[in-house]
UniProtKB/TrEMBL annotation:
PPR repeats lie at residues 566-596. It comes from Fistulifera solaris. The lineage of its organism: Eukaryota, Sar, Stramenopiles, Ochrophyta, Bacillariophyta. Coiled coil: none annotated. One of its GO terms (molecular function) is mRNA binding. This is Pentacotripeptide-repeat region of PRORP domain-containing protein. Keywords: Repeat.
């Protein structure tokens, strides 16, 4: 330690008298522990995980103690330094530097509190020839330490807003801090969810004010703007897109260059709006991003997959829009992406996800033509790239939705072959096999032959049994779930076999009670059973359906299952009575639906509900059936007709 002290004392700076500056009141001092507090542990509950062997030697410090001494003497050294009223000695300055170096290696709350209390104490004695190491870089390391601790903990007296007050005080009175310091504060709040987008924008404006006031270190860079736009994007508020656009416009006004994150945040925020207009705006921003690349404002070396991500998110915007143009737009964007410097795009990170979303755009149409388009997109991808699990899943779902079981079987077999050849990611799991089961359950024979439908339903049931056996033998990846059971039951319901549906529902409930939480029956499970009865010619199907409905109510009220009957349940019951020539009972069910809706227990009866009631009257043998059917028809017009139709009925 002698050599270090002698070097400092021999400098010309020490010819000046070391004087103690009067402390200035900091805005957080009323909340935080002061530097004179001789009990710095009063806010702390946990002990730090001190690193006894990872002490980093920064520069030539001949006077540094051994880490073991620092660990053992930490509390006493801190108490001594914080309690000192007189100007710190040279030895105390060097000991403080060593203590801060040690504290910055730990990520505990205790280290955060100690480090800032120690810094506050040291700032009282500045300027000092021994304090040249106190600079903005040190402050940023301390704020970085606080940021990591804040991700998982609330730190008394060191909230996001209090840290901002502290940093602004340091900037004003000690010329410490820069734009990165403020970025770390905002990033800590956004990542931990402990701040609002308004606060993030407030920090940005503070940074701009400091820069415009002549503090050049606070020049606002794109990352600070981007973390603020990200705060608004994550908030998912109605005004989020407007605020993001305003922040980007602010960048343009201040001549701050936009980078990849600036464009991506705008696209991602717009995609969340789920509208055709939002998807069109995403395309516009993508075009602006492309123009910026050609103008040399952004480069591929700095994009890190931005173009692939931008194309993928724009396709996602079309997927979420629900527009009939989604499939066509997805194809156009895919071709544009491949034409636009495809060699610079990373296959797994950029191209494959974009293709997967494009396949999904085609699948959601629920049509044969959509499934064929999905197959074309998949084939185009496979010609140049390697499809992943999601690629196969989306394609399988496209064919499954339209009941093309043969197609799905072939794709699943391709996955099995690739898996057996070493591709571990393509193992068909319960999700894939559920889609296969659904395809069989929906399978449609070209000639509507009953035997073919029965064969498909039996195949779906057998696949389910294979899943159950594999799960019982310990294969968690093949655990049957509620979707799987419902798909098989739906296939059996189409066979007009309520008894088999009922047995499978019991199996499902037993599977759930045995510990398979994924097999918990839901409302749809019971509605499928009701549907199965409605398709039969049993003259007592109305009573049987009513018993099922009462069972649903009982299970719901006792808390065993969340299967309270909904509008579909009651509408199916109405159908059971209506199709068995009992329109009066059907009307009783409708009146009960009206009562339950008024009580807030179910949704409003639909137009289909009233149309089924009308059909029940018309197909009955009741003498007044035409009068009742006309009354129902009038009710349909009043509830669901145009304004003109309602006016005519009122007059």
């Amino acid at each position: 330690m002698r050599s270090r002290i002698q070097r400092v004392l021999s400098s010309t700076a020490t010819t000046l008298r070391i004087r103690r500056l009067a402390p200035q009141h900091a805005p957080w001092k009323s909340l935080a522990g002061t530097v004179h507090n001789n009990n710095p542990q009063r806010h702390l509950q946990q002990q730090p995980a001190w690193y006894s062997s990872s002490f980093m030697d920064e520069g030539n410090r001949s006077a540094i103690r051994k880490p073991k001494v620092l660990i053992n003497d930490l509390e006493s050294s801190m108490n001594k330094l914080l309690a000192t009223e007189d100007p710190l000695s040279p030895e105390a300055w060097i000991e403080s530097e060593e203590l801060l170096s040690m504290l910055l290696q730990d990520k505990s709350i205790r280290s955060v509190v100690y480090s800032f209390q120690l810094l506050d104490r040291l700032l009282i004695d500045l300027p000092s020839p021994f304090g040249d190491w106190i600079n903005t870089n040190l402050l940023n390391r301390m704020v970085g330490l606080w940021r990591v601790a804040l991700w998982e903990n609330d730190i008394p007296d060191y909230s996001v807003s209090q840290m901002l007050d502290r940093v602004l005080y340091y900037a004003q009175h000690h010329h410490l801090g820069n734009e990165k310091t403020l970025y770390l504060i905002v990033e800590a709040g956004v990542r931990s969810g402990k701040t609002t987008p308004e606060f993030a924008e407030h920090v940005l404006e503070k940074c701009i004010d400091l820069w415009q006031a002549g503090k050049d270190p606070f020049y606002p860079t794109p990352p600070l703007f981007n973390i603020v736009t990200r705060a608004w994007m994550l908030a998912q508020r109605p005004e989020s897109v407007t605020r993001i656009e305003a922040i980007v416009q602010r960048m343009v006004e201040l001549m701050i260059p936009l980078n990849r994150e600036s464009y991506l945040n705008m696209i991602q925020a717009l995609a969340a709006l789920e509208s055709t207009n939002a998807a069109l705006r995403c395309e516009d921003i993508l075009d602006r991003m492309t123009h910026a690349y050609h103008a040399g404002e952004i480069t591929f070396s700095s994009l890190d997959g931005a173009f692939g991500g931008a194309f993928g998110m724009t396709i996602t915007a079309w997927l979420k829009s629900g527009s009939s143009q989604a499939g066509r737009k997805a194809e156009e964007l895919l071709k544009k992406m491949l034409d636009f410097h495809a060699n610079h795009l990373h296959e797994k990170r950029d191209i494959i996800p974009a293709f997967n979303v494009a396949i999904q755009c085609q699948a959601i149409t629920g049509t044969i033509s959509g499934a064929k388009k999905a197959q074309e997109v998949f084939n185009m991808m496979r010609e140049r790239f390697t499809p992943n699990y999601v690629s196969y899943l989306n394609l399988i779902q496209a064919w499954s939705i339209v009941g093309q079981a043969t197609r799905v079987e072939a794709i699943v077999q391709q996955m099995r072959t690739l898996y057996e050849n070493g591709n571990e990611d393509l193992r068909p799991d319960s999700v894939i096999l559920t889609a296969l089961i659904s395809a069989h359950a929906r399978s449609k024979s070209p000639n509507k032959v009953k035997d073919n439908r029965e064969e498909a339903a039996t195949r779906a049931y057998n696949l389910l049994q294979e899943l159950k056996d594999a799960y019982k033998n310990g294969d968690e990846s093949l655990k049957p779930n509620v979707v799987c059971y419902n798909a098989v039951m739906n296939g059996l319901a189409r066979m007009k076999d309520p008894y088999r549906v009922s047995r499978l529902l019991r199996e499902m409930f037993q599977d759930y009670e045995a510990g398979n939480e994924s097999a918990k029956p839901d409302v749809r499970s019971f509605n499928i059973l009701l549907k199965a009865w409605s398709l039969t010619s049993d003259p007592y199907k109305g009573e049987r359906a009513e018993q099922i409905l009462k069972r649903m109510i009982d299970l719901s009220e006792t808390g065993k299952l969340d299967v309270a009957p909904n509008v579909i349940s009651y509408t199916t019951l109405l159908t059971c009575y209506g199709s068995s020539n009992r329109p009066k009972k059907a009307e009783e069910v409708f009146n009960e639906m009206e009562r339950l809706h008024a009580a807030g227990k179910i949704g409003a009866p639909t137009k289909q509900t009233l149309q089924l009631l009308k059909r029940a009257w018309l197909s009955s043998r009741e003498k007044n059936k035409k009068i009742r059917a006309k009354a129902v028809d009038r009710e349909i017009a009043l509830r669901f007709g145009s304004d003109k139709e309602r006016e005519q009925l009122s007059s």
